[in-house]
Amino acid sequence: MNTTSIFLRLINRTRKIYPINSISFQSAGCRCSSAYAASVSQIAKERETFQDAWKGIIDNLTTNKKFTQLPELGSWVKKVLEYNVKGGKKIRGITTVLAYELFEKPENVTEEMVRLARVAGWCTEMLQAYLIMNDDIMDGSSTRRGVPCWYRMPDVGLGAINDAILVYGSIYEILKIYFGKAKEYADILDIFNEALLYTSMGQHLDYAMAHRNKQDYSLFTTERYYSIVKYKTSYYSIKLPVVLGLILTQNRENAPIEDIEGICFEIGKLFQIQDDFMDCFGNETVTGKKGTDIQEGKCSWLAVNALQRCNDAQRTLFAQNYASKDPDDVASIKRLYEDLQLPKLYKEQEDEIHSGILKKINALPSSTSPAIFFKLLDMIFKRSY
Amino acid sequence: MNTTSIFLRLINRTRKIYPINSISFQSAGCRCSSAYAASVSQIAKERETFQDAWKGIIDNLTTNKKFTQLPELGSWVKKVLEYNVKGGKKIRGITTVLAYELFEKPENVTEEMVRLARVAGWCTEMLQAYLIMNDDIMDGSSTRRGVPCWYRMPDVGLGAINDAILVYGSIYEILKIYFGKAKEYADILDIFNEALLYTSMGQHLDYAMAHRNKQDYSLFTTERYYSIVKYKTSYYSIKLPVVLGLILTQNRENAPIEDIEGICFEIGKLFQIQDDFMDCFGNETVTGKKGTDIQEGKCSWLAVNALQRCNDAQRTLFAQNYASKDPDDVASIKRLYEDLQLPKLYKEQEDEIHSGILKKINALPSSTSPAIFFKLLDMIFKRSY
Questions:
Q1: What is the pLDDT of residue A209?
Q2: Distance CA B191, CA B209 (A)
Q3: Which residues of A touch B (CB under 8 A)?
Q4: Best to test chain B binding among A162, A188, A223 (most B CBs inside 10 Å)
């Protein structure tokens, strides 16, 4: 830890009230570069403090009675968690903390609640770990966050399915330890359960689209694509952390939950089309994973838009080469995407969705701080990993 | 449905109070054959009524807002649930209902609460479905309950991992629909979460034992075997339904929870050694599944007891042939088990554990009805599937 962060932590320990909400953006129109810089530095600061909280949470989990009866269990769970939860951008975790800080009235933000928001945030990261551990097995992926997927590790194999359940079960044990006596406990459990159910519905749609009758791409429509995205991504990646942060505040009763949800779904769209684009055009050393969407025949943003733009010859080429593991076929699909100028279209759509989100944010009632959504956009807009 | 059960259901509809607790066994010593017959017929009756409740629960689940946005999702989940939850003995589900009826004071048992206990019981059956769907993939099993394992169905494959999550997520959606406003809601969620965590811990121990350095069987001890059983079986198969039934009653505050848990763990032992024995010596047309414990190198009751009884030559034979998929090796292990008279030892130990359980039941404080435990023993003692 560097001296700046020690200094900041000391400050945090000595005051009860965080003035974080004072850095809030009243409208997208007036965001100046210094406000943007302040936002980015706040995110960077939270990322570091957030990271520091991990060790204590894991120690609390693995030294509790359920684990200490058979000590090897604790060390195994620690190993699984450390391998699978480490790395990544921690967008979900940090969003949870910032959502709490920015939705709460400044005078009500306490150090203890920020600490708890970090715990809740780590639980969203663990949910993400659980989902990608399973996803990697189903997609036959090889790397994730720059290292081999867990199921590809020696002595793991399909035992990874159970290791994923250990990660998932640990989320609820942690929630019980830290929130078990809180009045919002059932709401916290509900929001995680909802996220799991919607994500598994979306994953089914995603999997079924990739494993349906090849040659028939009639279902690869924009409308269907965005339905899948809402289910498989927006709930757990965006709505879960945002609403979880809101649940921890004292002013959630009158929050415009449908408006908040609507913005979350739009940000989820942006997030997923970025993911889809990077799966094919991302720099593997930056994204940390090898793309498999073409090989798996996924209904990706690229596939959907290619099909809307291609002529008959290109459509035949697509049908012949998509969903193939042959590197030549994969390369020909990538060339087709380039011929159809999808990278240019991607940039345009990214900007368009971004503008649409800003409009929705500006339409929020004045009683609801929009700051968390700006923070989310700062974290993900134009991201490269 | 036969006329008797229609008659019984009509009776149940027209009265609010169930006199079921009046058929309770005060001590194991005085159990006569007519009491046993009454118990068995009560179990059979509940099994039928329990089965009838399924359709309404699934309809309620799949016609709710989360599913109706994309109708194909509802029909898929229905298909997955029907395939994976059907069949089996329904011990966990029926135990939940009987535990509610037998722990509750007779004057407090209402038709509405019995209906809710059935819903909770079906959720324990869905948890079982979720666990075996994953287990079958990890063990490379071929059949379950007389039909191919779900992941072996055409167009399913590893998508079964996500289908299992759909089943799991549906449990919590059902609990939310039926118990979301109940004061015991968080306790109900907790007991399911606890069951999942312990089971996944047990599954890890089980998997790790089977995938450790072959040849080294020093960890195949009775003590370790029973630790694994407690984690991987007793929590979700016995403690979950028993305590879930108790949670639904109005007299759980003073229940001797540690004593109840202790009996559950002993019944779990009995249940698991039966499972292990049948995996090798059961009649496949009755059990509905092909055993894989020998092939997978599992730390089963048979393996542990064989190693305690074999001479040096037999130990060498065991080490050479155990954990092999070759049918000749599997047959030689089965012969070894017979040479070591494990079927005889099994019958003795089954009786011994049964007697131990009766002692524990009789030591329960008089304020706690022991009837549910007798019912559980009636369902599982000397079972052949």
A1: 84
A2: 27
A3: 66-67, 69-70, 73, 76-77, 134, 137-138, 155, 157-159, 161-163, 165-166, 168-170, 172-173, 176, 180, 185-186, 189-190, 193, 196-198, 200-201, 203-205, 207-208, 211, 227, 231
A4: A162
Question: What are B295's two structure tokens?
Answer: 């092939």
Mean pLDDT (chain B) is 88
Report the chain B residue with the minimal C-alpha distance to residue A185: B186
Tokens describing residue B239: 């403690």
Q: Are B277 and B302 in contact (CB under 8 A)?
A: yes
Give the CA-trace dihedral at B274, B232, B153, B284, to 10 degrees.
-10
More confident call, A65 vs B240: B240
Residues A322 and A296 sit within 8 Å (Cβ to Cβ): no
Sorted by sequence, the CB contacts under 8 Å of residue B311 that are 6+ apart come out as none
The residues facing B147 across adjacent strands are B144
Q: Are the C-beta atoms of B187 and A149 separated by less than 8 Å?
A: no
Q: What pLDDT was estimated at residue A5?
A: 37
**Residue pLDDT, tens place only, B193-237:** 999 999 999 999 988 888 776 667 988 999 999 999 999 999 999
Cβ neighbours around B269 below 10 Å, total: 21
Report pLDDT digits (tens) over B63-78. 988 888 888 899 999 9
> Which stretches of chain B sit within 8 Å of chain A by CB?
66-67, 69-70, 73, 76-77, 134, 137-138, 155, 157-159, 161-163, 165-166, 168-170, 172-173, 176, 180, 185-186, 189-190, 193, 196-198, 200-201, 203-205, 207-208, 211, 227, 231
The model's pLDDT over A95-123, given as tens digits with 9 standing for 90+, comes to 999 999 999 999 999 999 999 999 999 99
- Separation CA B260–CA B372 (nearest Å): 10
Residue B36: its pLDDT value, please? 63
Residues 6+ apart with CB under 8 A from B304: B220, B221, B222, B225
Residue B28 has pLDDT above 90, yes or no: no
pLDDT at A36: 63
Report CA dihedral (A185, A186, A191, A195) to the nearest 10 degrees.
Answer: 110
Q: Are B116 and B81 in contact (CB under 8 A)?
A: no
Predicted pLDDT of residue B213: 67
**Distance separating alpha carbons of residues B338 and A334, to the nearest angstrom:** 62
Looking at the DSSP bridge assignments, the partners of residue B110 are B17
8 Å CB contact between B261 and B351: no
Predicted confidence band at B274 (pLDDT cuts at 50, 70, 90)?
very high
Q: Is the confidence at residue B27, as pLDDT, over 80?
A: no
Cα A158 → chain centroid: 25
ipTM of this complex prediction, to 2 decimal places: 0.87
Q: pLDDT value at position A18?
A: 28
User: What DSSP character marks residue B283?
Assistant: -
Token reading at B265:
């763990």
| B178 within 8 A of B188, measured Cβ to Cβ | no
The better pLDDT of the pair B5, A256 is held by A256
Residues A78 and B49: their CA atoms lie apart, in Å, by 45
pLDDT of residue A214: 65
Q: pTM for this one?
A: 0.88
Gap between the Cα atoms of B149 and B167, Å rounded: 15
Q: How far is CA B111 from CA A263, B43, B116, in A?
A: 44, 17, 9
| Contact (CB, 8 A) for B361 and B29 | no
Q: CA-to-CA distance for A166 and A160, rounded, in angstroms?
A: 9
User: What distance in Å separates residue B193's CA from the closest CA in chain A?
Assistant: 7
Query: What pLDDT, on a 0 to 100 scale, did the predictor assign at position A25?
Result: 31
Closest among A105, A122, A81, A101 to A39, alpha carbons compared: A101
